[in-house]
Model the fold of this input.
Amino acid sequence: MNFRVIFISFFFSLNFLFSKTNNELEKNPFIKTVVFSGGSFNSQFPIIKMNQVLSLSFDDVSGEENFYYYKIIHCDFDWNKSKLLKSEYLDGNDNNLIQDIESSYGTLQRYTNYKLSLPNNDVSFKISGNFKLEILDADDNIILKRKFLILNEKVDVDLNIFPSQNENRFYTHQNVQFTIGTSKYEIRNPNEDIKVTILQNDQWDNSKTILKPQFIEKDRLLYRYDQESEFEGGNEYLFFDTKDLRSTNQNISFVRKENIYQHFLFTDNPRSNLNYSNYSDINGNYIPNTILGENSNNESDYSIVYFSLARQFEIDDSRIYIYGKFNNYQLNEENEMVYNPSLETFEGVLLLKQGFYNYKYVIKKNNMVFKNQISGSFYQTENSYTVLVYKKGFEDLYDMLIGVGRTNSFELKY
Done:
């Protein structure tokens, strides 16, 4: 049995288009290509100031035009629902119908594209902080959730990235050190009022929280922690490009068209024992796009993408997943890989919209995720870092987001 036949039989056995998932966030297998963006910090990191706009786009590939509604929930800095009433954080009403809808045009895979902007004529925001956006179907089932942030900038944040100061982690980790400037905004009790969250590549699953500054000066709070603010450097993400459905590129082995396009990627190898190799990536993100139409929202087609990883099977409870922004970095049945003993490879199949994709392979074992066990970890890897500064004093009712700092490890300090 050749490679193609094995992959095809694997694909039909998955029955992935109609399988249910236990993933907390994605409870409808027909919802694809969720893009949530806004502000000036990053195209797919939804953080805005009060006068800016958030944009949500997603597809329903069921072939039906369904009704979807949205709700907005205010949270504390740790993403628990706050005690505020909706009238205290929203002007107007949520729980409204999403009305900006387009059906796919000229595509083999039928779908409906939904778009939502916030704020809009129905609802706007009163305060800063952490928020969750919930999209619900007509039966009030939550089909997806996304986090977003609103900034009321009061302080300056200056951050730098260093290799780890620990000799055992120097070649594998990166350390985030930063300063919060308070000359324009008085903070009476920094040790109690200020909380900080650090993100690597805009991913919440390995964020770090620091509750107290290490040093306090007149107009500055200094954070010079070692292990508390360290991250594995990881490795550059793997990638492929399907903007032109008919052609191959350096990472696509071949393309086939049946009822839908199919893209077979070259088999990937583990990189943990290789030397670091520098090449440009987009830190796990993806950019839906097509060169065959003018409107990528409803003219981009979908294709079945076949992944394979050359790795021996281990007799334990570890599982391997395809990991990336394409599904909000979640690990679920859809992106779990299955071992093929005849080829000694792990294989996975995903239905993905045309575009440029970053991905990597991660391991989950004993309810712990090992992001870099397969790809390796290097201090030279290019990563983006974000520092979020929250303030809640004795007189405050909620955690205000008062400062944001961003930098890139291209500017690694020594």
Notes: The longest strand covers residues 355-365.
